[in-house]
């Protein structure tokens, strides 16, 4: 009688533990599948990932005798920039996933980030126009801005009236 109760208790504990292990393995497989989906099949991982790691470690070594903000901020920035340089396709996929998570969990922050990126791009264009280098990137005003002619700045090649582009910027700044 006691043996049956102990065997039943053991079977229950074993099945509960097996259920937990199965759920953990399922989560692990989902994470593995998601991480493997980031890899761009056209990019070889072997030398590029090694170069990225070496660049990040080299930055850690070079900044070890610098101030605390430099030691904290520069190595992760170097890692991200090396990752984007050596593995651009994979970095693009990781960035898209980050934007997807941002839109799902903190949409207001994503909206603010996209607006600030658009504003800084337009500010750089205005600096380029004021220094006379605005047409070097293949973008710019295709006519005189004061006359309300057509502009291609900040619109990804689409032509819209200048008042639409600059009206949007000034409307957001108010």
UniProtKB/TrEMBL annotation:
Annotated coiled-coil segments of the chain: none
Main subcellular localisation: mitochondrion
Keywords: Membrane, Mitochondrion, Mitochondrion inner membrane
Annotated localization: Mitochondrion inner membrane
GO annotation (BP), single: cristae formation
GO CC terms, sorted: MICOS complex; mitochondrial crista junction
Domain of life: Eukaryota
Pfam families (alphabetical): ApoO
Subunit structure: Component of the mitochondrial contact site and cristae organizing system (MICOS) complex.
Protein task: Component of the MICOS complex, a large protein complex of the mitochondrial inner membrane that plays crucial roles in the maintenance of crista junctions, inner membrane architecture, and formation of contact sites to the outer membrane.
Name of this protein: MICOS complex subunit
UniProt organism field: Suillus discolor
Upper taxonomic lineage: Eukaryota, Fungi, Dikarya, Basidiomycota, Agaricomycotina
């Amino acid at each position: 009688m006691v043996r049956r109760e102990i065997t039943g208790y053991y079977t229950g504990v074993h099945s509960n533990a097996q259920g937990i292990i199965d759920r953990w393995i399922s989560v692990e497989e989902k994470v593995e599948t998601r991480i493997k989906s980031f890899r761009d099949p056209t990019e070889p991982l072997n030398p590029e990932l090694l170069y990225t790691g070496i660049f990040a470690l080299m930055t850690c070594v070079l900044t070890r005798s610098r101030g605390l903000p430099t030691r904290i901020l520069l190595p992760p920035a170097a890692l991200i920039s090396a990752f984007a340089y050596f593995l651009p396709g994979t970095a693009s996929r990781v960035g898209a996933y980050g934007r997807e998570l941002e839109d799902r969990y903190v949409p207001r922050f994503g909206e603010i980030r996209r607006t600030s990126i658009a504003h800084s791009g337009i500010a750089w264009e205005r600096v380029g126009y004021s220094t006379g280098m605005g047409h070097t990137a293949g973008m710019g005003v295709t006519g005189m801005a004061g006359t309300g002619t057509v502009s291609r700045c900040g619109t990804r090649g689409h032509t819209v009236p200048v008042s639409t582009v600059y009206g949007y910027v000034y409307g957001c700044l108010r």
